[in-house]
Records
---
Amino acid sequence: MFRPLYTRSLPRTLGLSRRRFISTTTPEIPAERHGHLPSSHSLITPTLSFFNSVTGGGTQIPTYRVLDGAGNVIEGAEMPELDRDFARRIYENMVCLPTIDNLLYNLQRQGKISFYMTAYGEEATIIGTAAALAPDDEVLGQYRELGVLLFRNWGLKAIMNQCFGNHMDKASKGKQMPVHWGSPEHHFHTISSPLATQIPQAAGVAYALQRDPERRGHNCAAVYFGDGAASEGDFHAGMLFASTLPSPTLFIARNNGFAISTPASEQYYGDGIAARGPGYGMDTIRVDGNDVLAVLAATREARRRCIESGRGVLLEAMTYRVGHHSTSDDSFAYRPRQEVEDRKRIDNPIARFRLFLHARGWWSDEEELALKERFKEEVMTEFRAAERAQRHELGELFNDVYAGELPYNLKEQRKELGRLVRKYGDAWEPWREELKKFKDGGKSVMDIEDK
Amino acid sequence: MLTRAVSPHASVLYRLPRHAVSRLRYSTAVDAVEPPPAGGHLPSIANSAILRTSRDSALRTPGLKFADDEPGNSLTGRETRRMNVYQAVRDAMSIALAKDDTAVVFGEDVSFGGVFRCTMVCLFTVLVVAYPAFLAVGTSAPGGPSHVTRSADLVPCFQGLAEEFGRERVFNTPLSEQGIAGFGIGLAAMGHTAIAEIQFADYIYPAFDQLVNEAAKYRYRSGGQFNAGGLTVRTPTMSVGHGGLYHSQSPEGYFMGAAGLKVVIPRSPIQAKGLLLASIRDPNPVIFMEPKILYRSSVEHVPTSDYTLPLSQLEPVLPQSNPDITVLSWGTPVYTCETAAHMLAQPPKGLEEIVPSAVRGAKVEVLDLRTVLPWDIEGVLERVGKSGRLVVVHEAGMTGGVGSEIAATVQKELFLRLKAPVRRVGSWDTPSGLNYEKFILPDAVRVLDALIETLTY
């Protein structure tokens, strides 16, 4: 029997078939059979018919939701498995995230740290997905996923140290901008600024997981990215590799409506990011990113399929970027303030989940107050400790370019910097002030010739 | 093994895609067995003195270090086998795959053996058994060019690395260079060994962002917590005679500023195997550029054991104790420099009038840089410090080429010792126009001219 060149066994036994997600956009299977093409299962049809993911008339890919705005489970929806303690842990992290964001945002405004990015409005998406992952699933983020590290107990201390780039900052040793976190112990790969580069890398990470007998069938690589980053070529590459090669990669698109000032309507013409999944032969779901229970349930199922099939799965979380893009951005230059205020009030992911918890008797106003007080205090303590700490040694700037011994040019350049610091370190005011911030006052490069 | 090799399918296995056939055709350039010219014996790739064509000289390759886990480190009992560059490359990959369970090889079309056959394993047995005469010829006539290409062409049967190590470890990827590089970085970030192939160096640019912004900076930006050190990107480079704009490029200069990356370019089979194994095991991401014209045309006796050659260390291929001039190159033009040095000493017919007799006795030292980033600054300064004259030869264009970096460093460090300006011989700052290659690429006469001009400055 004829067997096409590129057959693969896709999981079709699961309750939600791939077809369901694209049922409104795929053409009808023709009644007549005229055979097949040499390299495809496609049936021959005499009907001249086009298809598109955007068909108008409200036939877009549906959005999965569990809780309504009042925190009630909507008709027909099934509650994800959830006990009191786990629900409270999710909620506490959802509350803590904007508390950290508030403080660090304000610190940037005061010039104490150089840069910051908040995750306002995306708390349910980030904490909900984090809660559905195993603690040792490898996470590759874009930059708005601090909540994952928070959920994995990376700790306030490490967060503050990274933002200040002080000598206790292990994440980048003061080499990257704030919010570029990373921790191997927490299986969170270091963030980098170039958008979407982490997407094909995630497929490689997942392939490594699949090759590791200890982790095959237990772990996936979860990669986060925004709707804007999904326009990069690397998104295409990552989706392609994870669908073609056995690499359990969970693609989590945070569709928050904006890429800095560019609205989603100028980012793509199709039906969001989800519509692209089927094109890569990938199981796909769109979820209400402001409904933490929907995010939790969808991510759990996406993760399960991902690991079971050993291939990529796409999840698009629909949300809204309530905050500015970053501290270098004033978003009211391109969107009305009222729109943002309305979204915050009408569709607040934290409020929605709080109503749910209240209804179950799992949370109270007193606990809310106490949590916020306790957390604010902890945040301030850690902030003060991090702020006071000095930076790494100045010589650290040459380390980790290469593993092993410094190459000749870097040795020479380190020596040259030492000469310059000796000569101008006191006389040149911008350097004098800056040198004080380093643990060694610059000695590590100045002493190089004596070493 | 034997039955397999003489099976009627052998010829089918040997069949190559059209793509690679063009390389075959080119290899006939070294098939021509002509007697040495009357005016002097000009070396070419086929009979270069640089190539180590006996077991003894192969085992005495400077810097060669057998793997620690190999029994004994003495030379007695070590075997060598005649290989060309692509055979040496796949020999290295085969060793890397056999010794490291995490190692995987991937790229476009690597699964069937690669368009340059670097991911195939070649079974020599039949050649030896069926035609014992070749074995005798191969070991007893060093320098004789006739057997060199014949033996390489007559290898009757191939087995893909994919068949030996499985499709999980040697596999095709979708046609996306940025995907290949990103995927490799992800594997390396998990501590695995990723040996990626970009089909032609001309097509490495779509992966430039992943290589320069990601692979190169992975360790630095994470404070040493993560790294992409397990990544090696192999890619065929340099001209091939008819490659036109996009099968000829030498992009090593574009990576010169990518601190964190290493760029390695071998000149021969022994070098290719040793440097590739060193690159694969180096704890930094390495771009390994294989001069594609040498895949089939340069043949050496290559030690069959696991060995490495040092990175960031040049090798004097034509050393001189008191050199008058130093010529520095890497990859294919190393042979051009060797030819030019001979032309200077014994000008071939037609050039006798042009080469001044005063420079014919000049001692020309030829160095192979081998690692372009980080390059062996100390080694270059030491050698040029003795000769006082430097000619740098590369196939890439002049502006922004690696030669500019070397020339600038040498003039800064050796200003008072230089007897002539550092001279660069490269391609012109044009793309590699198909019909114009002979006038674009630095050939022996251009290197000869640079030698004369520098020596008579």
Note: Chain B has 19 helices and 18 strands.
---
Amino acid sequence: MSVSGTGEIIAAVLILIGTLMSVISAFGLIRLPDVYTRSHAGTKSATLGVLCTLTGTFIFFWFVNDFISVRLILGIVFVFLTAPVAGHLISRAAYHSGVPMTEDSVQDQLKEDMEKKKKTQSSKEDE
Amino acid sequence: MLEIVGYIALIFLSISICIGLFRVIKGPSMPDRVIALDTIGINLISAVAVISITLDTGAFLEVILLLGILSFITTVAFSKFLERGVVIERKRDR
């Protein structure tokens, strides 16, 4: 088997895995109960899916067309760096704008910490 | 072989973009919609990659980088707007 045939097979498998991961993350988007679990589904597995797809594309252009694309490497690195940051920012904005958690959740440590911080600040102001 | 795989992958990506669109329309709160739009942008990136494979051209690879940067900037701007009420703050002491 030639080199380009092997590259095609690897690229096809990676692309299929990546797009399946995207479909699974989309089903997580409609099935999960509240914002935080949905952001968990929408950022992690969708990021892994797009990383697999872009790696498959990179391997396809490398083995079949003999073309190493720096733009694809940059895109992979950029998506890998920025998608979790975006998920963190939007979950934080959701918490601070008062979106409620689902009723199944059992603990909220951020709320306890924020109340403790508020209490120490108010006692400092009293002194 | 890779053309058939590309078509199957495009069908999968269209399904996930449609589900994200359902969440954008229905979503009970604003951050839900922003998360769904971010996911749609990420799926669009991989759709552009798969399309550039099926057309067998390397001309669309800048689009991947641009879509990644744009979706990150929009998500950051929306989350800052939801948290603070403004996107670009004024200088304080003046």
Note: Chain A has a mean pLDDT of 88.
